Amino acid sequence: MTNHDQSGEDKKVKSVRFSTAIVTSLAAAAFLPTIAYAQSDEPEVEQKSHLDVVVVTARKAEENLQETPVAVTAISAKDIEAQQLTFATDIQRAAPGLMSRGAGTGPSAIVTFALRGNAQNSPNSVTDSAVGVYLDGVYLARAISSNLGFLDVSDVQVVRGTQGTLFGRNTTGGAVQFTTVQPDGDATGYVKAGIGNYDQRMVESAATIPLMGDELSMRLAGRYAERDGYGKNLETGQPLGDIESDISTRATIRWAPEEIPLTFTLSGDYIKSNDNGTMNRVVAVNPTGPLATLFPGQFSLDMLRTEGTYYDSPGFTVTKSGEVNKIMNRNRAYGVSGTLEFEVGDVTVKSITAYRDSNSGNAADLDSTPAGGISFYSEYLQDQISQELQASGSSGPFDWIVGAYYFKETGEERSDSYALSNVPALGGLSLAPSGRNLSDFESKSSALFAQTNYNITDALRLTAGIRYTWDERSIVGHGVDNITGAPEAVFAGGGVVIIQPETCRVGPNAGTTDPALCNAPFDASFDYPAWTLGLDYQINEDLMVYAKTGGASLSGGFNTRPAPTGLESFEPENVKDVEFGFKGQFIDNRLQTNLAVFHVWREDAQNIVNGIVNGGLTQFTQNSGNIKSYGAELEVKASPWEGMQLSGAVSRLWSEYESGTFLDLGVGGTFDRSDETVAQTPEWTFNLGATQTFETEFGNAAVHFDYAFMDDRNFGQETADLTDPTLTQEQIDTRLANVAIANQLSTLDSYGELNGRITFLFDDPGLELAFWGRNLTDEQYSQNLFASYNQLGFVSNNAGNPRTYGMTVTLDW
Asked: Residue 648's pLDDT band (boundaries 50, 70, 90)?
């Protein structure tokens, strides 16, 4: 093993103490005003509200955030600007309990989200996220579409807890909604330009163009950004952690005729991002594992960087064409959607029709050394169409919504892998052939739903809803061994085996070299309900309590990459939860506190597994027992004096497997893995923010700081297989020791990030000058991890971003 940071336990103790202090302070802020409010006999004095009234659409209708019986975080355009939320991965700094990170091994433009212990970390085409992502009401099915830049975004809403009734399948953890600025007939807009260290450059603009007054208008928006890398690839000289180019464009046209109650919005967007790969580094090597024993001299201890050192990542591998396949990410997506909303009497009808196309190519060298450990190239192509119809209205004490939904996606996934290749000890032979997993897939989903709010009294309200979903999924696998274009020599069974190019590895014709016969078809159908039931009580105009429960499902499907026998498919994951909440505003709305306490039950939990199958690297999904999670989330906002805005949020999460439910097949029988820590479940997350605005002779000035903390989190643990009856005590002890080391190394340490922004706003013209900094303390941390200590013999991770700073100039009109 290596110079792994041994201060993790001390950091853990400190982080728990710090987190406890934070939650205690925020809890006091939440409940002390309630006591004071109840005891106050002072007459009411009409004063200006110091906190904005926030409108959310967490229940497919516009509601005051403080009167919505759902745990939801609303992030406004002002918040996005002040907190420097540039990409979707940044949202975790603003919402309690949310994790947003690069999928798989960390491609920067492929993003997955996790909430309340519901996590998924794979870009695979048939593995669905537990947190749904929506752009202007359109569901984005794949992670390759989810890293939307914040181009002309009006707000982001993070809705926590099961949302299956109104949002549909694959929202067992919650939903993240992006809403863009809509044209309203006013000739408004802005142009923005910025520079920063690492040669960061950005230009952005948006404008609303009235075409026929308020009835017909258009909004155009675009952005271009680039930045040098935070690291460097020593072998190729290319930058790492860079933005080679990032392009976002959007056009929206809105028609709202005065003579009829109708609104039609047509929108199209295009995003393209290129970079030269993430900053991957080896942090530990198993001295008896394959990397150490098969590649002596191709790595050394000075290459095994600590958390306090950024690194260089040497090389990829030689491909079929003989070219060096660079580490890189190439991502593109575009879409068009049409939203029609009109009134028929007292009923509002809404239709959302959308098409989206995505393409992503990613190359990575996981061991980040000159050794031929693990490298791969993945490509994902997907297109989707969706149609949603809604009808909503009020009938006496009932507010209701009913609807129907249809979704279809098709695509192709390719994954080329090179594992343990060009081994010096074997005269340059490989232990596993190069391989390509290629799959065509198709998914269809349809659903009917209904939800109603029954106003029992003016203060007491009952909510009930149900949805039923029908899914059809199919894939055809075309996996092959040897993609070099020439016979490939592999060391196997104590001798040399020659594998011909494009040798079929799947289906009934495995072993042949005819690509036309290399097919392995699978198909299945699933159906499941989602439901919700809740009760909320408005104590007075400022205080509300609620209780709700619900159930939802995460789709089942097939693995597009090799999986152990019996694990070619996986079943739906079924989730139920209970939530109790309190929302209050005090001191003439100078203080707002929102608290949610929850318990989640996950049955047949879907987990992502990285492993070796038939000598090749693979990643597959399997059902892994039952999980229960529980915790609390608290959000506080305050305006203690004129010009000051304070905010804070904290999340506490406990998550564990139910004993005896996570069983795995060992050499001599099954063994229980239920004692493992659930992946991607940080116990604590919190954020703090403060903005002070000053009036000046030229306009306004503002100073903003925010801090976000993420606790330790693991990325998949192991349990020693001791079922083999021939194991000696020494072998048992060795296995237990290796598993203990592997589990320690599969956990990323906690970290915090401090950011700041100073703004000068000139009244005439509407000019804004901002100086900003991110990670001001230059915290050195890791944000993603690949752990294969006992199988491939190493652990690598992705370094977080260093301190960055710069300035931005914006002209509004």
From this structure: very high
Nearest to 121 by CA among 143, 140, 141: 143
Domains parsed from the chain with CATH numbers = 8-478+519-812 (2.40.170.20)
Tokens encoding 307: 């958390």
pLDDT at 786: 84
For 142-191, the pLDDT digits (tens) are 877 666 678 999 999 999 999 999 999 899 999 999 999 999 999 999 99
Backbone angles phi, psi at 2, to 5 degrees: -135, -170
- How far is Cα 110 from Cα 363, in angstroms, rounded to an integer? 13
Token reading at 250: 């959007």
CA distances from residue 73 to 26, 92, 485, 601 in whole angstroms, order as listed: 16, 11, 53, 23
End-to-end CA distance of the chain: 60
Give SS3 for 26. Answer: helix
Q: What letter would DSSP give residue 800?
A: P
Interval 746-762 mean pLDDT: 95
The count of residues in the chain is: 813
Q: Tokens 């991890």, residue?
A: 785
Identify which of 709, 716, 487, 746 has the alpha carbon closest to the alpha carbon of residue 606: 716
The tens digit of pLDDT for each residue in 268-303 reads 999 999 988 888 778 888 888 888 888 776 665 444
- What is the Cα–Cα distance from 708 to 135, expressed in whole angstroms? 25
Is the distance from CB of 526 to CB of 514 less than 8 angstroms? no
Non-local CB neighbours of 28 within 8 Å, separated by 6+ positions: none
Secondary element (H or E) of residue 10: helix 8-39
Query: Using CA atoms, how far apart are residues 463 and 522, in angstroms rounded to an integer?
Result: 40
Helix or strand (DSSP H, E) at 524: strand 520-538
